[in-house]
Write a structure and sequence with these properties.
2 copies of one chain form a homodimer.
Chain A lengths: L1 E7 L3 H12 L3 E7 L3 H9 L5 E3 L2 H4 L5 E4 L3 H14 L5 E4 L5 H13 L3 E7 L20 E4 L7 H13 L3 E4 L2 H29 L9 H7 L6 H10 L1 H23 L3 H16 L3
């Protein structure tokens, strides 16, 4: 049981943390922090949070746990402010899609003031954004990857893990580098592919969009994801995204080579292997 | 109302034609034709078809309407046999994902014997295959693209269009070349992208597959599609698929260039445009 839980950035993820914490009786009081008071009034009126604050310093006063849920680059800047303002015993985590950056900021700040920070990344989300689409069950049966390092306070590992488990998630640990490579492959690369599919058709065969059926819709659903959030994610993880693009282009080239040579047996063998891999996902 | 409807190839699409025709009272008798008697006994026992035949010549005797629903290359071969055997007044169509090939075969055969053929492509399907996943409502509110040419018998256009409408579909007409380019863009290219995504992750970051969440799953759902069917589709439409790959690689390159130069405003503007395009799909 947390006394005061502060969510900085009350959108899909931050709002869902608040709702899940409320439903699970995880926190006595939930504070929502954001830049724009008007945008915080919806979550307040909806009972998602008990109090709101537009000043981060004031918002995290007496916090027992702070969850940073703004964009990746905003989280890094906010962490500097929060680090000075939260009580010594507070737990701090974030929900950003890349982890090397914020973990590096935390380790730098910890030299001046030791504090219980652990990076988190809930593998849950939607192409929709905003507190209106937040759900109390967003994390239920979802995986949250946490990214401890040798420098992480064991109390933070224990406390933040317990928080996510209380919100219904399964917790897995990866080091920040492995995390960023992993999500480049299974999240950022599929987003890039979805955007490129929409772009390719819109630019080169726009009339075809009128015939888009379920295959195109499912494959490109995430192309409608929040642009400012994803701008930050892609720029924070550019090296890993580009490495995954090298692998993706190699895979495209291999399939195209089989087509170009009319290698029917080779095409069928490749598709059979990939069908098995896809169906093997847990 | 059709007297005898013959479905050649009783899988997802052929089985769904039979079920929808049955439910809509569209045909008095439905015959299922396939190579393997044992595999036809399931649809027969399930009441999906009234009779089965493994001999195509015998199966299409006295047919009023024949729907070819095997793979693209098998349909072309079957069309030659059927063309000789069906009554003069019969309507013939197919459900293949590429149309230039079978329309060319039909036009060649029509020189020797005029017959009512119209190519069809229902924009409905699934990554699952087989008669067990056939559904009476598969075509409801789906688009069926038909591909008449100047040489097509107007009676076939009218009759086959009426059949699809009776099964619940909306019918649009494209010439075979435009059809093949259109489906390369909105169906074949997304499949290729889905296979390449699975392949890239499996080969270069296999540990990441354990963390695949909804984004990866939706984007790659169609990577589990039937390999023999898709081997044929890709090889029948290789030129159009490769042209769409040129457009796709150009779109990937453009996005990567913005990342490589750290162009945050450019990335956000591109993602904003693509989100609007994706959300604009009817």
């Amino acid at each position: 049981m947390i006394g005061r839980l502060v969510v900085v950035g009350v959108g899909l993820l931050g709002g869902s943390v608040a709702l899940a914490a409320r439903e699970g009786g995880v926190a006595r009081e939930i504070v929502g922090v954001g830049r724009d008071r008007q945008r915080l009034e919806g979550p307040l009126r909806a009972g998602m949070v008990d109090r709101i604050a537009t000043d981060v310093d004031a918002g995290v006063q007496n916090a027992d746990c702070v969850v940073l849920a703004a964009t990746v680059s905003a989280n890094e800047q906010l962490l500097e402010i929060i680090w000075r303002s939260v009580p010594a015993g507070a737990l701090v985590t974030d929900v950003g899609s890349t982890k090397r950056g914020i973990v590096a900021v935390a380790e730098r700040l910890a030299v001046g003031r030791p504090l219980g920070f652990l990076g988190s990344h809930p593998m849950a989300g939607s192409e929709k954004s905003g507190w209106q689409v937040a759900r109390a069950d967003l994390f239920r049966a979802a995986t949250v990857i946490v990214t401890p390092t040798d420098a992480t306070d064991p109390r933070a590992i224990k406390g933040v893990t317990a928080l996510w488990e209380a919100l219904g998630a399964r917790v897995s640990a990866l080091d920040p580098e492995t995390h960023d490579r992993t999500v480049a492959a299974i999240s950022h690369l599929p987003h890039v592919a979805a955007w490129a599919l929409v772009d390719a058709v819109a630019r080169f065969e726009p009339g075809a969009l009128a015939f888009a059926a379920r295959g195109f819709r499912d494959t490109t659903r995430i192309a409608a994801s929040d642009p400012p959030m994803w701008r930050d994610v892609l720029l924070a993880n550019t090296d890993a995204v580009r490495a995954s693009l090298v692998a993706f282009r190699a895979a495209l080239d291999d399939l195209e080579r089989l087509l170009a040579t009319g290698d029917a047996a080779g095409v069928e063998a490749l598709l059979t292997r990939l069908k098995a891999t896809r169906e093997g996902l847990a």
